[in-house]
Amino acid sequence: MSLPDFFTLAKLLEYWQRQTGEPLKNFFLNGWECKVLQPGKGWQTGKMKIHIEFYPDRPTEPDSPLDEIRRMDS
User: What H or E segment, with its residue span, contains residue 25?
Assistant: First the structure.
């Protein structure tokens, strides 16, 4: 299964679980054992965790406390 250009978070999590066979909580809570190649230093062992953050294309501005007063004047 390959991921299309557009996908839901549920599909992404399902894909990760199928690829690794690990429970999803391990990706976020415990991480998993891995090795990373450090240039000039060799392999370093450790754990990797996944962090997901959403960045909207058009960020919305927070409501100003004055917005309610402006609406009342309209």
Answer: helix 24-25
Question: Per residue in 2-11, pLDDT tens?
Answer: 656 667 878 8
Nearest to 23 by CA among 44, 50, 1: 50
> Is 0.70 topped by the overall pTM?
no
Contact 14, 27 (CB under 8 A): no
- Taking only the tens place, the pLDDT of each residue in 15-48 is 878 888 877 777 778 888 889 998 899 999 999 8
Strand pairing partners for 34?
46
Q: Cβ(49)–Cβ(31) under 8 Å?
A: yes
